[in-house]
Amino acid sequence: MAESPTVQPEAGTWLESWLRACAELDRLQAGNPLLDAVIDEVDGRRIRVGDRWLHDFASCNYLGLDLDREVIEGIPAYLDRWGTHPGWSRMLGSPVLYEQIEAELRELLGVEDALLLPTLTHIHAAVIPVLADGGTVLLDARAHKTIHDGAVIARARGATVERFAHDDPDDLERLLRQHPRGPRLICTDGINSMTGNPPRLAELAALARAYDAILYVDDGHGFGVVGERSREELCPYGRRGNGVVRHLGERYDNVVLTAGFSKAYSSLLAFIACPSPVKRLLKITAPPYLYSGPSPIASLASSCWGYRSMPAGVTSSGPCSTARPSVCWTISRSWARPP
Fold first, then answer.
1. Model pTM?
2. DSSP string, 262-288
3. Average confidence (pLDDT) over 213-229
4. Rounded CA gap, 110 and 106, in Å?
5. Is the pLDDT of residue 271 over 60?
6. What pLDDT is attached to residue 309?
7. C-alpha closest to that of 273 among 154, 127, 91, 63
């Protein structure tokens, strides 16, 4: 099939300015067959792009539940009962599956409450501005771009945004002293998406408590893979997959945890773990709860089955450290700091 000729935007327009700023990425995309690839067929962990079969090292299905036969075969019963897609925003009504998963999350994480929304991008854009409330967002300089985007929305609503040096408690404390009036929201990654390293969570959380701030943690790449550890635990990733806070032995005082189900549970679903009063507030202020289309039933079902499909002999409430062969290699890197 012949490609359409490239039409260049008029010089000096907003579109031309954006494309010029992104020229290097545009060239990379044009010259690399594995960027923006159209995948024609999947065979286990191989994919076919055009006439080439490739081994897939780019998948974010960390535990392989996307191809797990038990999960796949369990989903049709949910579709028969609920259809393919709920017809309501969560403000109007939610299938009881949401309540069940939120209850599982409360037990799994050891938190007061949890709220499910479609994606982490939705959560950052909706929740960061609410929690900042015209105060100050203190942003780790290397935090995920979606966190930065949420901070930009908070700034548009009156908040001040400051960046502290990556994973540097001393620089963070300097900014906390410079901005003594609350509310103050400290935003950072949990398990870093590029390095696989955890943050200096104990020090960051201690500062949040000392200065009456909130530590907002995005553990999208840790939830479902790393979890709580006892002294007898041999696996460096811990067990139950209940996230970086439990993995590092921290408590949830002044800490809000966010994460998604897409990486470990292969589901279009995400959550914020927070105190119940914050959950009630978000139910009347967060646009994804009020207006967004909900997660499809298949994603809710696969999240439910994810809890049940772990190896025998392990606590069934959530994932554990007994990794399946398809655990993403990026999570298996050695950490710069021991847990």
1. 0.86
2. TTTS-SS-EEEEE-HHHHHHHHHH-HH
3. 95
4. 6
5. yes
6. 57
7. 127
